[in-house]
């Protein structure tokens, strides 16, 4: 359950990172611009994945301990994503391929 929560948190934070200028250009090319509509869709998917990561924690450890572990897992996922963005940006592209739903929706809403 801990690994499921970690993966969901990592994917959720990947959606958030994809809205930052440099990672967005890494994924979509130097000339691409991020519209407000696409940004909010990506943020929505990020919030959704992070919220879904709460369920395995609460299911495994109960609400009091589960929420504390969930917050810790979000921090660990964030600390994992920062070095990937800094030192291995091509790994971020591979991680983005895991985020298939976001790719499909943002491709459909290109403006």
TrEMBL record:
Superkingdom of source: Bacteria
Keywords carried by this UniProt record: Membrane, Transmembrane, Transmembrane helix
InterPro entries hit by this protein: DUF3325
Name of the protein in its database record: DUF3325 domain-containing protein
Transmembrane segments: 6-28, 40-61, 67-87
